[in-house]
Design a protein that fits this description.
By secondary structure, this protein is of the alpha/beta class. The chain has 16 helices and eleven strands. Among the domains are: about 140 residues, Rossmann fold, CATH 3.40.50; about 100 residues, Orthogonal Bundle (Rna Polymerase Sigma Factor, Chain: A), CATH 1.10.1740. The longest helix has 18 residues. It binds NADP nicotinamide-adenine-dinucleotide phosphate.
Length: about 375
Amino acid sequence: MKRVAVLGSTGSVGRSTLEVVAGHPDRLQLAGVAARSRIDLLAGQVAQAQPPLVAVWDEPRAREFAELTGRRDVLAGPDGLLALATHPDVDLVVVATSGCDALLPLVRAIQAGKQIALASKELLVMAGSLIMRLVEEHGTTLVPVDSEHAAIFQCLRGVSREAVERLIITGSGGPLWGMPAAARQAVTREQVLAHPRWRMGPKITVDSATLMNKGLEVIEAQWLFGLPLERVRVLIHPEAVVHAVVELIDGTSLAQLAPCDMRLPIQYALSFPERWGSAWPRLALTQAGPLQFFEPDTAKFPCLQLALDAAAAGGTACAALNGANDVAVQAYLDGHLAFTEIPRVIAEVLDQHVPLAHPTLDEILAVDAWSRKAAHDRIPQWSPR
Ligand SMILES: NC(=O)c1ccc[n+]([C@@H]2O[C@H](COP(=O)([O-])OP(=O)(O)OC[C@H]3O[C@@H](n4cnc5c(N)ncnc54)[C@H](OP(=O)(O)O)[C@@H]3O)[C@@H](O)[C@H]2O)c1
């Protein structure tokens, strides 16, 4: 029986994770859940699944949660998230929070020898070298939940590192892929948030519309699979049937195909190294095609180029990219920044940043804080929540 803690249980990935756990009562036990502030949703999850451990990041909301549910043992604030991630009664930690607050809990969970299922790509983008070094040092297993990386991870089973020529990360292109440049200037929030293939949280949906998401995924793949930038490629694949391709040195390509359903990569990460059955919809290959693949257009989608440039610069450049993007996207979602201004804010922050080559955790956190402030300074009259 694996005892699972879900950081970000009220989010899109978190809710799917609870479904997976509930579907395998003989193999998985929900040891704990954590959210930031949506306590009504969290209270419903706790009433239904009865996890012994509950953490709420926002301290006033933690007190409200305690009053609402009568629980006196709520783990509150940043220390609460840390306590849950490292608790002796937890075997596997699913990291599915938005933002970057879960970096320290992730680091400590790895150090405590927990198995990790990682959805929060931003943490690898800001601190990939440190996280992967700790995984190695502590002999922990970290399985990616992001569908493209889960696809690569599965294709690479039984394949030696030397046999890999290149990784191809596919992306549907998001809601704006086929839209002419002029129409994109006037794109509405509804259009940006209407992803054609996936139902996800707001931040990643905006990242999908700017194609920043693909850039973050290239950086994530570099760290997870230890390949240089020039051997990780992005292709736009609007049908979203093939989630990634691994090209091998003999000319063979291995691809992973699956329905667009996050429960699949989540279940694989929870079952690893086993593979369990499921009753979820199957891919209907006869109805899936024709399958198309296109080069991404970085002139139309400058955020992708900004991410590739940060990856090439290395060191703390990716942490600066990530912090600036987080703030720009939140300002957009709050109605204080135009969609087309998101890359401008990020580019200006990156222009000011001098990357540190081999940063410590404290240096990464300092660059994250600096880049958030630098981005915020470029967005007048806006106070983040
Ligand atoms: N959604 C997808 O299909 C998908 C696919 C691949 C990768 N990912 C990655 O997975 C992560 C989560 O995405 P999502 O779409 O599930 O986001 P989401 O729907 O916005 O949910 C975010 C979750 O994180 C929680 N959270 C945020 N800050 C927290 C903190 N400081 N302490 C505790 N909980 C905190 C939120 O709590 P509240 O509800 O209280 O705010 C919520 O439960 C992102 O990094 C995303 O890039 C998502």
